[in-house]
Amino acid sequence: MSLLGPFAAIGRQTAGISKTDFSYSGLEPDELLVSEDSVSEFERSVFSLVEAAGYGVLSPEQAKKQLPEGITPYEYCLGREPWDRVFHLLFSNTD
Q1: Left (φ > 0), alpha (ψ -120 to 50) or beta: where does 50 sit?
Q2: Burial classification of residue 39, based on how many CB atoms lie within 10 Å of its CB (0-12 exposed, 13-18 middle, 19 or more buried)
């Protein structure tokens, strides 16, 4: 979910959790899912809950749109460079 607007990106990731650490794989714009890609009840529930909360779910096509010239993310992104897509602007690291 983006801190900049009511947008969410949903995709499948791998997570590793231990007593002292955690890690997860990052999403790239072309890895995003739309509700029609849901393969389980869990995934369908995630889409329903996110949309019921008023968030729009970005499709891969929307996420991959090039940013206008001169517009760049405020902070770095966890994904691959270049960070020049709508996805990178909405989901840059803002902590």
Answers
A1: alpha
A2: exposed
Of 35, 30, 55, the C-alpha closest to 45 is 35
pLDDT tens for each residue of 23-78: 877 788 999 999 999 999 999 999 999 999 999 999 999 999 999 998 888 777 77
Cβ-proximal residues to 8 (8 Å cutoff; 6+ apart), any chain: 1, 2, 50, 55, 56, 57, 58
How open is the CA angle 81-57-75, to the nearest 5 degrees?
35
Beta strands in 1-95 (DSSP E): 7-8, 15-17, 22-24, 56-57
